Amino acid sequence: MNKKQLNQESKPLLHVEHFSFAYESLKNPLLHNLSFTLHENEITLLMGASGSGKSTISLCLNGLYPEAVEGFARGDIYFQGKHIQDFPKGKLNQEIGIVFQDPESQFCMITVEDELAFTLENLNVPASEMAKRISEVLQAVDMESCKKEKIHELSGGQKQKIALAAVLLLEPELLILDEPTANLDPVSSIEFIHLIQQLQKERKMSIFIIEHQADDWLDITNRIIVLGRNGDIIADHHPEIAFTEKRQVLEKEGIFLPKAYDRSLDFDGPSPSPVAKDKVCLSIRDLSFRRKKQPILQGIDLDIHQGEFLAIVGENGAGKSTLLQLIAGLIKKDSGDIDLFGKPISKWKESELRKRLGYVFQNPEHQFITDTVYDELTFGLKLNGFTQSEMDKNANRLMRQFHLENHTFSNPFSLSGGQKRRLSVATMLDETPDILLFDEPTFGQDANTTAELMDMIFDLKTNGTSIVFVTHDMDLVDTYCESVYVLHDGKIAFSGEPRGLWDQDELLEKARLRLPYRIRKHTKAGEYYDLIH
Question: Could you name the domain of life of the organism this protein comes from (predicted)?
């Protein structure tokens, strides 16, 4: 790998000195006595276990925390030699731009054009210049065709790019990206990283990236900083040193090792053999769905069998989440049939349907309906007349399983991104349904919690629950799934075993997918081949 070397001559841009932060009391801080410096023109990757405070430190760096929350801070942060508390209100937020982990949380307007215009208005840009600036920034992030679109109708990956465009309009000196590729299809993820590299060269920005998966960032990264579970820095090195000399420390902390450094992957095998498909739980025939007269899905045929582990994959905007919502009965089809155990899904009573079919949203916050983690885990049980003792026992079991025992009475919206995802999965397991639908279930998880989550899901499958994943992670598909459906141009372009998909070079390119690492590590042949392979 030709990784960028850190330029020791570069000037300091941001300096953190003995900084601690806590949401409740500095006696038990989330971030503990952090000291580090970010330099001009530097690309730094911040890693750490889920819940270690990665997103929190980013919001402290640009002064949003502790002011925006009920938090407590100690220590100092300097930007360009000036204490961040000495900046005029709003000025630091322009100098240090953040693309949040959940891009929806930073949108204020309905359409893409209005959102970007709103940013420019706040910068006092003359109206006569706005159209040109908006076109330029949309061109930079390859989203020109979406200028008139409503933001809530965009895919998760498209929203991520619009959030980036809005921040780029600020022309920041430091750009912070919080898990920026988590919602992007495999090829879009690579293209996004190339875009960041290009923008960094053109605009001479420093980039601070929060990521669980370092693999595709390595070639442009100067340095890796790793937060430990206790809120302190356990590694701050060039990537080569971090993933070799600090390997054991990082593994113990649950950090994903880049696949090029993970020797266990040398023994990876292909995906499991398919289950005996003798009992169909859910059947879809000739399903079509339109949004504002625009066809999203058309002529979809799909069967989910008992105990089957099935993946639905495809590029951003292909309709994967829409298909999952149709299966769950959350939105209404235009035509076709969806039958659950031989009965049209529209004929099921809501209470009975939710016992048989569980759905985990792409954005976990969309399914939270109570004020505490405990109430979230017991909501369904309470409706079904379980005793207090039974609810306590079940909630305690799930909190232990999903590492949420220290957050019993925390508001679900106050959790970290990874903790929210684990809670959203746990809420579906208060009673075990026949079919579990997951939209990007491993988003925000470190190596340990991902492995534990997949073990729990695989146990459910072994006991007869059907599992459906919408995912961009082809390694996950290759390792766990017996069947895979590829959505492209609103139709099923492939259905079968994953090993059959890996031979479809033309389809992989069209659907912007990528071969799993165990296959592509042995093959190199050209730039686009590298993108999909």
Answer: Bacteria
